[in-house]
Each structure stands twice: as C-alpha cells, then as structure tokens.
Design goal:
By secondary structure, this protein is mostly helical. It has 2 domains: about 25-105, no CATH class; about 140-294. Helix content is about 60%, strand content about 5%. It has helices at about 40-45, 85-105, 110-120, 125-135, 140-150, 155-165, 180-190, 195-215, 220-240, 245-265, 270-280, 285-294; strands spanning about 25, 30, 65-70, 75-80. The protein has a two-stranded antiparallel ribbon. A hairpin with a 2-residue loop joins strand 1 and strand 2 (about 30). Helix 8 packs antiparallel against helix 9 (about 220-240) and helix 10 (about 245-265) packs antiparallel against helix 11 (about 270-280). The longest helix has 25 residues, at about 85-105. The chain is globular. The chain starts with about 20 loop residues before the first strand and ends with a helix. About 20% of the residues are buried.
Length: about 290
C-alpha cells in the first residue's frame, strides 16, 4: 500500500512525469511551483523576481523580471523595467494626470463669452433651432420667454404657480414651505420682463398667500413671518413708486390693505409693523380713495 500525496501539505512526495511537486522545501524554504497568477495579484501588487533553486530533483528556473504599470488607469506590461525604475516613473505620471485634470476643470465652467463666441457663427435658422430646444427643455424657460414677449393671457400665471406651491403647500401630503424658492420666482420674472406692474402684482400675491397660509394653518415659523413683513414693504414701495397707472396702483394697495387686516389676526406684532409701513407709503388721501373703492 502506498501513501497518497496530500495537495495541501509541504511534504516531499512522488511526482509523475518529471514535474516539480506542488510544494517543495528547497534549502529549508517553502517554494510553490510556477502557476498562473490570479487577477488579484495583477490588480494589487508588483510581481517580483522568483527563482527556483536546485534541489534533490531537477527543477526549472523561472525568472519573471517585469512589472505591471497602472499608467493612466491601464494595465500595461513593461518588460525589462525594475521595481525601482517603475517607482521613479510614478511622480511623472502623477504630474501628467494632474495637468490633464486641471485642463478638464478649466473647461467645466464655460462663460457667457465662450457661448457668445459659438453663437456668433450661427445663422438665423440655427439660432431659432437653439431657442426651440431651450423652449422645450424646461417649464422655466417657457415661462421666461412668455414673460419676455408678453405672450399668453396671463404671463404671470407660471410664476404665481411657483409662489403658491412654496408658500401654501399641502401640509396633509407632507409638503414644506420655502421662502427662498417663492422669492426666486419673483426674481426670475424681474429678469425675464421687469415690468413694474407685473412685478408689483407678484409681490402682492406673495403677501396674500403668505398671510392666508399663516392664518389658515396657524403657521408659527418666525422666518416665514418676517419674510412676509419684508415683502409687504417691498410691495408697497413698488406699487407706489413704480406703477404708473393710478387704477392699477389703487387696486394693488387695496389688496395690501386686506393683507394688513389679516396681519392683525396673526399676532407677534405683524399687524402693527404693517400698519406703520402702510402709513409710511400711503398718504391719508389715498387711503380714503382705497377704502372708498372697497
């Protein structure tokens, strides 16, 4: 009966066909026979020089004198390069990589001048095609163009929809308020059109929605209430100073007077602040006209 060689132990055993045993003790050092290296070895480290020395049985001498470089993210064999030489190449590759990254970052933030330079070569048809793509890209772009050219029955409707969403959300569905987004709608309209009457109307609408929401749901957010008072002041200034039509101005001021009445119900001195602001911007004679029109 002969013992069956074990494939896991470092013991000397019989090998067939003149092959080197799976594991061999050479000069007291355990050496594995040459075999295909797994992908993990290539992925995570350099291959060093491996020499299998003479033992009791003839052995094959195998010399692997190459490294696998990870230049620019690619696995490339570089024959004849030692580990020290490869390590000296790393700083150069790092500098090159940093330069390429800097170039990409510089192109990542194009300016209007660059866009204008590209558009300068466009003819009328090409420019219209770009505008058509922008028009289809987002609702904000469509609202901008409608307001810029005064298209539609009510160019303000898209901006009022945004104000309504962020000042009077559906609390039962877990929606939240956002003063900044509601104000941004007014700012976007100013950039798109800048019409004083439309701007004043959006400001007054902001005050209506904010005051109504605070009253109906007992909204207690201090920042929200403070923003309401500040917008009330801006609406008064815009309506009295920028709106030319007397009829439109009196209509806007009449709505703000109703907002002031709601403010008195909210407490926290909101009504008092609005009374002071209203008296500052609206003369007594105009207040009589406003009250007479109500």
């Amino acid at each position: 009966m002969h013992a069956i060689p074990d494939y896991n132990d470092a013991v000397e055993r019989e090998a067939g066909l003149g092959a080197i045993p799976s594991d061999e003790l050479l000069d007291g050092v355990l050496v594995h026979t040459a075999r295909g290296w797994r992908a993990e070895t290539v992925e995570h480290g350099h291959l060093a020089v491996i020499q299998i020395r003479q033992s009791k049985r003839p052995a094959t001498i195998i010399r692997l004198n190459f490294v696998l470089a990870h230049g620019d993210g690619l696995l490339m064999p570089q024959h004849g390069i030692t580990t020290d030489q490869a390590s000296q190449l790393q700083p150069a590759r790092r500098v090159k990589s940093e330069r390429n990254m800097a170039k990409r970052q510089s192109k990542a933030k194009p300016t209007w001048e660059e866009v204008k330079a590209e558009l300068a070569s466009f003819d009328r048809a090409a420019l219209l095609a770009v505008l058509q793509d922008l028009y289809a890209a987002s609702e904000g772009n469509r609202a901008f163009l409608h307001a810029r050219f005064g298209l539609g029955q009510d160019p303000l409707q898209a901006y009022k929809k945004i104000i309504d969403r962020w000042l009077w959300p559906d609390v039962f569905r877990g929606e939240e308020t956002s003063v900044s987004r509601a104000k941004r709608a007014i700012s976007d309209y100013r950039k798109a059109s800048g019409d004083p009457e439309g701007l004043a109307e959006l400001m007054v609408y902001y005050c209506e929605q904010a005051a109504g929401f605070c009253r109906d749901v007992d909204h207690q957010d201090a920042a929200y209430r403070d923003a309401l008072v500040r917008m009330f002041e801006q609406a008064l200034r815009t309506a009295t100073d920028a709106v030319k039509s007397e009829t439109v101005r009196n209509c806007l001021l009449g709505t703000l007077d109703q907002v002031r009445s709601i403010g008195r119900e909210l407490g926290y001195g909101i009504g008092d602040d609005m009374d002071v602001l209203f008296a500052e911007f609206v003369s007594s004679s105009r207040r009589r006209v406003i009250h007479g029109n109500r």
